[in-house]
């Protein structure tokens, strides 16, 4: 993408590792390393899996380097120096001011079609998952949902009783201003007045 993002925040870590590891012999076109790293540095990573994939690239290594690690040398080096704290690991303030977020769910793909919209008030800094929980609390008949925990955080499996299926190649896609979110519901933080759409989609 023009802003330096490679795929999304989930794919960025492995993409950087791959490009760094193969840049000497695989170069279909020049890529802007500085721009890509500025995107990573500006992002506040929270998911352990995403952090584990992005950190090797930040120190100029990749998972491929693990095979050739000299553990004794690494141990000696770690006694003498410590890596600086990564700029991607930010801190969070306590949510204060309430904000209003618009949230809608739409199924025009399967079974009985439906579209429901609501506006919920949450503290600023709340995640999309918290927005969904408030919507489900206020109107469980329309906005109830189910999720499962994964190594990448919570994954929404069904909304309004309609579940995605690998057999049907269907899932719930989350968008803002028509663009797919580049983070999951457990980490994405909507801003005041933002309209988040959950659309039952196919891939």
TrEMBL record:
Which GO molecular function entries does the Swiss-Prot or TrEMBL record give?
cobalamin binding
Q: Which GO terms describe its biological process?
A: cobalamin transport; cobalt ion transport
Q: Which GO terms describe its cellular component?
A: extracellular space
Q: Which UniProt keywords apply?
A: Cobalt, Cobalt transport, Ion transport, Secreted, Signal, Transport
| InterPro entries, sorted | Cbl-bd_prot, Cobalamin_Transport, Transcobalamin-like_C
Location of the Transcobalamin-like C-terminal domain: 125-197
Major place of localization?
A: secreted
Say yes or no: keyword Secreted present. yes
Where located?
A: Secreted
Residues reported to bind cyanocob(III)alamin: 8, 53, 181, 203
Q: What does the sequence similarity comment in the record state about its family? A: Belongs to the eukaryotic cobalamin transport proteins family.
Know the name of this protein?
Answer: IF factor
Please give the organism: Lanius ludovicianus (Loggerhead shrike)
